[in-house]
Structures are given as C-alpha cells and as structure tokens.
Amino acid sequence: MATNFWSSSHYKRWIVDRATLRQARSDDVLYLDDPDLLGFLNIFFANLISKLGKKLSLRQRVIATATVFFRRFYVKNSYCETDPFIVIAACCYVAAKAEESPVHIKNVVSEARMLFGEEYGIKSFPSDNSKLAEMEFYLVDELECDLTVFHPYRTLMTLCGKEGGGSLPEAEAGEADADDTDGPRYWGTGEGKLELQEGALQMAWFIINDTYRSELCLFYPPHLIAIAAIYLTLVFHAPTRAAIQHAQAQAQPHASTSASHSHSHGQSHSPTRRSSRSAKKPHPQAHAQPQDIVGFMAGLNVSMPLVATVAQEIIALYALWDRYSEDPGVESARAALLQRTRKGRAGRAEAQVQQEAEGATAAATGAVTPMFLVQVLLGMREQRMADMAHPASGRPVVVNKMLERTQAAG
Amino acid sequence: MLDEWSSNILVTDPMRVYRSKRDAARKRVTDKYSILGFISSGTYGRVYKAQSKESDGRIHAIKKFKPDKEGDVVTYTGISQSAIREIALNREISHENIVSLKEVILEDKSIYMVFEYAEHDFLQVIHHHSQTLRSSITQPVLKSLTYQLLNGLLYLHDAHIIHRDLKPANILITSSGVVKIGDLGLARLTHQPLQPLFAGDKVVVTIWYRAPELLLGAKHYNKAVDIWAVGCVMAELASLRPIFKGEEAKLDSKKNVPFQKDQLLKIIEILGTPSERDWAKIKDLPEYQNMRRLDPFANRLGQWCQSRIQASGADLLSHLFAYDPDKRLTAAEALQHKWFQEAPQPTRNAFESLPSHQIPPHRRITVDDAPSMMPLPAAGSQAQAQVSQVQATAQANLSHSHSNQSGKAGSGASFASMSAGGTHTRKKARLG
Questions:
Q1: Which domain holds residue B80?
Q2: Contacting A residues, span 367-406, partner chain B, CB-CB under 8 Å
Q3: What sequence ranges are listed for the domain Protein kinase (chain B) (predicted)?
Q4: With contacts defined as CB-CB under 8 Å, which chain A residues touch B12?
C-alpha cells in the first residue's frame, strides 16, 4: 500500500474530474461576482495552511497532506456554508496525526486563533479545544477515513534524489527501516536516476510546493505532477538548460536525421540513453559524459501530453498568482521565476508566463489581497444564510429559533 | 438583511448549518446493524457482535472506541493517534489474511469500526486444546496457522507496515479456518517516516512477544520484530503456553523504560546467551552491559522442540528466533522454508484435517454490562434509553443461550483482533 499508488484510496477514490469540482462550487459561484476569485481563494487557503503549518513546525509533507485534506473536504462542501478557517485548523491537526508527527490540540487552537485573529481579523475562531476536536470528527468523516496521501515529493526523490538524502530543506528522515527496496518502480524505466544540480532539485521541490496552491492534487496522480515539475525545472533552471542545450549541440553531428525536436532526438542518439527494454548496464564511459536528461525524460513510461498539460496548468497558476498580492515567500519557485521573467530571458515557456501575466495584469482592475478575500468569504456566507432563510420561491422557511436555541443551550 | 440571531450564529458558530446538514444525512449505527451481543472490552473501548440489516444479514464485529469524557459529560477531545493509525491503515489494505474493515461510522462523538467477523482466535484455540481437549495442536493445524500468519504478515511488510503487536489474542481465525491478522492499533507505516519509530511509542509489543533488540533498548528496529513475535506465537501454538513468559519491569516514575531483565533471562534460558559472533551489533545496544551481567546459558531450543515440533518445523523456529535481526528470516523467506513444502502441506482451511468435535467452539457473546456504550435507537431521552436497554438485554440473552448450545468453553476472553485486554494485559504505553 505504501508503495502501490494504484491500489491506494488516493487513486481509487480521490482523483476527481473537473465536472465534479464544478458541481462542488456551484453554490459558491452564485455569491461571487467573478468566478476567477475561486482561483485566488485556492491560493489564499493554501497559503493559510502553510502559514499555520509553519507556526506549528509541521514538515512540508504534513502541510501538503493538510492541503490535500482541505481540497477533498471542499469537493463535498461549499465555502459559503462552512467556515474554512476551522476546517484549515482541523486539516493541520489531522494531517499531523496521519503523518505520525502529532501536535497537541491546544497548540493548534492557540496558533490558529492568533494567526486568523491577528492577521485576518477572524474573530469567530473558537478558543475551546472541543470545537476543533468536533470539526476533526466531521472532517475525518468527510474524508471517508482515507488519511493516507501520496505526494509528488516522493516521486521527485525517487527519480532525482541523491543517495543518503541531499541538503534539501525538507530531506525526509530516512531512519529506521529506511529500505528503499521497492523492487522495480511501478512506472518509468526503473533504471538510474536523473542527476540534477542541487539548485535544480530545489527548484523542482519548490514548484511542487507551489502546485498545492491549485487543485492539481485532485486532478492528477502525484507522479505526473512531479514529472511536470521536473520538466519545468529543466526549462527554467538556467544552468541545467544550458547543459541540455550544450549536450544537444554536441550530439547533433552524429544524428542521422536532423532532429530539431528534442524528444525524437533524445530517443535516437545518446550515449546514456535509458530504455525500458534495455537490460544492459550503462556503458562504463557513460559516467564520464554528461547525462542525457532529455533521453531520461523521454524514457519515462508516462503520457507526455498529460505531463505537458500539467505543466501548462502550473504556469497558469503562476499567472494567476501574479495578480495576487501577498508576500510570495522565499520558498516559492514562483518568486524565482518572476525575477527571471522580468529580466526578459528568452525561452518559450517563460515568454508565455510573461505574456499571460501581462495580459492578466492588464485585465485586472487591481491585485487581489488576502483581506479582500476574507471580506468576499464573509459576504458569501452572510448572503447564503439570508437566502436559506428566505429562498427564491418567496416562501420564507420557517425557522423555529426557540427550538434551535434550546438545542444550542444543551 | 440578517437578523440578530443569524448574524450571531455566524460569529459564534459558523459551522452550525453544516453540522445539522451532515447529522441529518448520516445513517446511524443502529440503522444499519442490530447488535447481537457484547464480545470484549479493553482500554481502547468495547467490541460487539452485530448483524447487518442489509439483505445479506452478514455478521460483523463492531469496535467502538471509548468516547472521551470530561467529568460525566462526553465531549470531543481529539481522536487518538492509535485510532487514526488503525483507521488510516485499514482503509488502504486488503488481504485474505488480514481482518478487513467494512466501514467506519463516526456518530455522536464515538467512532465505530465495522470489521468482518471471525469466530475464533489463536488464544482461544490454545485454550481449547489446553483446557478442554487436553492435547496438543496437531502438526497440520499448526503448520497451516503458521503459514497463513506469515502470509498475512508478508502482505503487511510488503506494504511497509510493521504490526508491532502480534500475539495470539490479536490473530483471528474464521469459522472456515482462515487466519486473519487483526488490531493494527499499534501498527506503523515505515516508508519514509518523518520521525524515527521510537519517537512515537517508547514501548512496543506485549512483553512476552518482544524481540531481543527491543529488550536491549535498540532505537532503530524494523520488520524483524514482527518475525520474532511469529516465532513466539508458533512456539506457543506448539506447547500451549507462552515460550518466554517473563515478568515485565514497570516504567519508573519518570517514564523511563527499565531493563527487562526477567524477560531477557527467559529467552536466554532457551536460546542461550547471544554472542558477538551471532550478532555483531549487539555490543552497541544500550542494555548490552546489563545483559552481560546475567548468568550464561547454552542454546537448548532443539531440546525444547523435540517433543513438540517436527524436525524441519524446529529448524524454521530456530531461524525465526535468530538473535541478529538482520539474520532473522523475512516473512518471504519463512514462507519458502522446507517445512511448508513437506507433507502435510499447509491447507487453506486450517481446520480441514480436524474431526468436527475438535474444532474450537464459537466465540461466546454476553450481555453488555455497560449498555450505554451502544447508541440507542433515537437516543436522547432517559425513558427511551431504558426501554432499549431492556430490549438489548433480551436480544443479547437470546443469542447468548443460542451460542451456549454449541460451546461450553468458548473464549469469552477476547475478540482477539480488537482486544487489548483479555487474558493478556496490555503491556505498553501509547502516545495519546
């Protein structure tokens, strides 16, 4: 189970399609002037989870799991009928337990109260531990008790990780039973590793962090997201891209057909080519030569069009994020990307980022801020409450408040 | 637009609407199952035998976690780590030799885990042979039970799960003789742990089944601790009593884990004093010096096995009991052992070779002495509660007398998979 994604609850029950998600948001869009705001809310909530997680000293993987829980909860619920802030706190609390690094409930309550109250003016967050524990109960129920989540980080480390853990900020504790004897990988060539430079590996890691600002984790299996992140890294990370271009230029004279397309090129001629069929060990001299990165990517047994789609969506996320004004944080790959696009470097993908970003900024009347989104959320909820009391049919629903008050009192 | 009450709710309890919607939609335990009786209880909560109200009318075991209490009022205080673990792991796994979880119902501040029902468990089979039949478990049954146990364990280990609490009470057998490993409450995923294993639970595995590396204070351990426990269980099946029945030294007031001298002594008396030649890393373990102070013994496992297990079975046992965890057999290797190739080969139904009168009796169910643990139909008022209590008692009495016809010495002791209690007291600390 821990090794087999294809038999996991994640794969079997929690990869959803867009129609399902549109349905999930159908009530919310009634109360939004601009459906684009949903994208901003995705970024906003993920940032909140990340902030709360950092205050609780949660590891990146725990924060990622909490974010996935949050997304899954809102596959079945509306923002306008719930309080996302307590849901966020419950997600962090449950994720910490699910990832075997529990935090005390009272820490979650006090940190969440402080964060939401002081930075976002949310006064409704309860001070009572039992309210969070109650939310945990409903959350676990909504999650159908599926608490094991797969993340792209694992694929990244499988494909590119250095033996003995690198100097990544979040190198996992490969302690105790650290047997990586998973047998042949269930996809890919099962051979070798992609040797990325330290900076490139870090960039891929940060791009994966960034993907949690979107709903990608609901649409695609984590290994595709990881490969898309690696692909973007190969394009954006200047030294790596230079190395690829250099390798291609060198290989060019040997090519029988002029392979301008990198994929076909990589597959046709390269000294360290890895193929799913070749059982031979890499030629000894291969070590001396620079690695054939393009060939490695092409040799992965995944749908490249799908990887390209995921990469496109990540770029679209960056474009949207550019219109959102909150400190992007040091750990965001987007921060690095933005700097680079502003320098106006060439490159198709980058140009696209820039183009989309410019178009978006022009269209936007102003940047979206967290405080604005908080107001939007509160407004949605108020209107929803009003509508439930006075439905469109014009016939007000009888609300027996006396009864409800009695119930509330105990 | 909003009146005072509504806007108040938005401030004081913005999840009111959500909860009432959910509560209304939720099917209650008693809507889906009728409770036939009470099976066992422990520190974790209580286990009931129940029948599905669906057309198949299947029998289940429902484990109800003890609700949290603050004074007399049941409140939410957070789901325990062990419940989260057991739920999370069970949702991902599926194997013939692992007790399967049908569903989890969260209702009224309580968690109900609905498992497939199993009529017997290893402990009950051992009791049946030692108390009623007064004869040892036959080799074909012993072999089949051991094989199936290893087969289930292989699945868990392949999924990177260490069980950490294998013992006879936790290993169930269905009425058709299929072994089912239960109680994953202490189990852990070991793939890429964010924290080392010892950080969470300082003490794991009931003392009699605890591997030497744990007794010697190893901070890092692995799947091999389960294999040691399998060895203990196999030996217990063969001799009808625990092979290493030591006294547990209690945690001191500072919750320090003491040196388990007596338990280690019990092991050494049979397996001999471990040498650095058997186990090179032993000298690095925290309690090594303490162990050296114990009297030396020679290995007499062969002698111990003589009247109890066939020669090749004894060979398997000696390899399950390798001191060095790195030399101990893995589940996969153990399944390849020649004992399982030899006649009689292990059968899928462990009881296949038995005449019907030797098959252990059905699990005994009783009247719940704390009926309030089960939700009452339309729970709420006191009067209703009393009525349903009477009903429940009558219902339980019915099934009670029924089960009595079939078995006199049923093991009321424990529904193993669920049991932390029973005849073996739970001897370990848990992280809340």
A1: 28-117+365-406
A2: 378, 381-383, 385-386, 388-389, 401, 405
A3: 33-340
A4: 124
